[in-house]
Design brief:
single chain; alpha/beta; D-Maltodextrin-Binding Protein, domain 2; 9-stranded mixed β-sheet; 3-stranded antiparallel β-sheet; 40% helix; 25% strand; Extracellular solute-binding protein, family 3; Solute-binding_3/MltF_N; SBP_3_CS; signal
Length: 275
């Protein structure tokens, strides 16, 4: 399995690097006067992370029903260095921004794609990892290109960046017979397996992990719907907290902790923090 994970990690890195240059670091905004976001976390000793708990390998439930994943390991280490307890809070991904705005969670950290639309209402830190939107089909499917999906059914997760990627490919979207929105990707992939959909539009990291972990006879089309980057979302004015989290991640990158965690989940260090 270790060698398989290494091959997956290397393939993932090569595909993403080919899609565009790696950008270094994350933008920091000065904390405005009266910003108590960091102070609030330190005082209550809890850092609440909102996530879709069915999004492996970023955040998901293991065989013991414990929430684990790449993002979870990163966040646990950040929380430890801040001297607070990490609380993982499953949320409705389609209402994630609302959960953040109402204070139910302190951040959205779960393979959260950076988009211009989201940047208008959130403070992002990152990017920390590159990704791409891809199409996954059954291995025996006659579909080999996006054009082969004309007149067929494609599925994706509601509220995900896959929805944005599809909207940004209007000709391809118009060629589809139907687009099904699922609550989560595990449900979508189960429907693909039983023939309820002809293809699923999905994050590359999730597609690779599902194929490796489930052993299902799926394959990923070479043609993608575009490259993207993962970041961590905070409330618009929570700069004191977001800056501290990013500073901590940068320190973790310098001392090798990020590389160790990334290699554990992807087989190699494909993180872009500080690179």
């Amino acid at each position: 399995m270790e060698e398989t994970m290494k091959r997956i990690g290397i393939s993932l890195l090569c595909l993403i690097m080919a899609a565009g240059a790696v950008f270094a670091g994350g933008k920091k905004d000065a904390a405005p006067a009266g910003d108590t976001s960091l102070e609030n976390i330190l005082n209550k000793k809890r850092f609440v992370l909102g996530l879709d708990d069915s999004f492996p390998p970023m955040g998901f439930r293991d065989e013991n029903n414990q929430i684990v994943g790449y993002d979870i390991d990163l966040a646990k280490e950040v929380a430890s260095r801040l001297g607070v307890t990490l609380v993982t809070q499953p949320i409705d991904w389609n209402a994630k921004e609302q959960e953040l705005a109402t204070g139910e969670i302190d951040c959205i950290w779960n393979g959260f794609t950076i988009t211009e639309e989201r940047k208008q209402v959130l403070t992002y830190i990152g990017p920390y990892l590159k990704n791409a939107q891809v199409v996954i089909v059954k291995s025996a499917s006659p579909v080999n290109t996006l054009s082969d999906l004309q007149g067929k059914i494609a599925g994706l997760q509601a509220g995900s960046s896959s929805v944005d990627a599809l909207d940004e490919a209007p000709a391809f979207k118009a060629s589809l017979k139907e687009v099904i929105e699922y609550k989560d990707y595990l449900t979508a992939l189960m429907d693909l397996d039983v023939g309820g959909a002809d293809a699923i539009i999905i994050d590359l990291v999730v597609a690779n992990d599902n194929i490796q972990r489930s052993g299902k006879s799926f394959r990923i089309l070479e043609e993608t719907l575009g490259a993207e980057e993962f970041g961590i979302g905070f409330r618009k004015n929570d700069h004191a907290l977001s800056n501290k989290v990013w500073e901590t991640l940068e320190a973790m990158a310098k001392d090798g902790t990020v590389a160790k965690i990334t290699a554990k989940w992807f087989g190699s260090d494909i993180s872009i923090i500080g690179k």
